[in-house]
Amino acid sequence: MKIRIATLFYCASLILAATDNCNLDSEEQGKESSNCLQDLPTVSSLESWIDQVQTEHITQDGKLANPGHTSDKNVKCRLPSPRTCSWGDCNTVSPGVGNVTLADLSVMGGLWQDGLLEGYGNVTYQDKSVLKGNFHLGCLNGLVTLQEEDGTLLVGWYHLGELSSGPVWLLYPSREGAMYTYLEERLGVNRLSRAAFTGDTVAWIYPDFKTGIVGQFVAGTMLSAREAEIMENGEENGIPKMKMSLIDANTKIYAFDPSTDMHLSSSPLQRDPYERKLLHVQTSRIPGAGVGVFTNLPVKRNTIIGYFNGIHRHRGGIFKDEDKSAYLVEGTHRNEMLDIPEEYQSWQMYQGSAGHLINHGQEGNVDYTECWHPRFGRILCIQTLTDLAPETELLVKYDVAVDGDGLKMALKTALHLGHAVSGKSKDQFAKDVRPYLKLVSDIVKTVKMGDLIRF
User: Fold this and answer.
1) Is the distance from CB of 413 to CB of 294 less than 8 angstroms?
2) How far apart are CA 351 and CA 185, in angstroms?
């Protein structure tokens, strides 16, 4: 049985027990041939470009932001009124560095000359997204990046202050994937946003940059898409272009179908195409563990290889339930837990994601990490902690979720009982049990040492 959560109650005898039995025996993982790791995938030119453009946005050195070709060098992009020079020298004829705040509260920063931005500059919007690129006579030109508050990075090409035709990318910060589209014509907009990812040939590209889902999206939300093979197809203005080929026009349709507190999936037996390539479910090598999750291919360390999609439950309500689920994990938001409803806990009933079937190992080879998925929304991804050979069983080290208030009450009751039968003064008893309380407090971070000593 997979136990991810427990309500802990300690009594005086446990607190005063010897600690030499605290170490758990590690579960042995079946040994795989190291020769298989020779086939680990290599870093592609696309991955190198992504590393470079993400680093470029952070370092602000402007090396990638090629100013591009301007057909009319006399074109000027004047700022709308009202506007305010909120810092520095923005309104002088001679060059000066400063910030200009616009009526929509966006702030433009950089080198100003005669009221126009010149050179590498930035725009910070009210939603905390930050655009960076090269300006000439106040007009954005060349490669432009826009980073959203959560770290997601959009990349496109600008000409005379407007988003130009060509490839546009959306890169997720945790490397869970990317979105790609090719604009056949200029949209007439001056702000790079998710609205660019609207159309019938938008692609979600998985972390291998070979597997994708292509179809109809609106502002980055998937409405109807099918599995596709993704291939690099050169570049345009220094931005990679991709070629997309549907695997089969009759394959199942994928759509945005996020789980809620009651709803898990509208198509519970529809597998994710990327997870299907990398993982399969079979009988675990751990005696009595039932099924487990195994790799199909060699996988590199720090690679997302699968998913844990579950219903969203509030942490506070979990400890009130009489029946505790064996499939609970910490969610992506504060006090949130992901769970698999009882009717979907077997692989025969739910195959949308395999993360809930990963068994415990004291030395885990994967971990859960927050990520975005085009079908499930904000969920947990399975990320490798080491290089893995084919047919390796995935193991994760389970954490324990604790009812902090209930635990403190139980501990204080145990301390009172322990003191009553010890025959010692309260100060001496507290001194004797302090090392054990420290051990509990270290394990359970929600419990403060001072709260326990003041019993």
Assistant:
1) no
2) 40
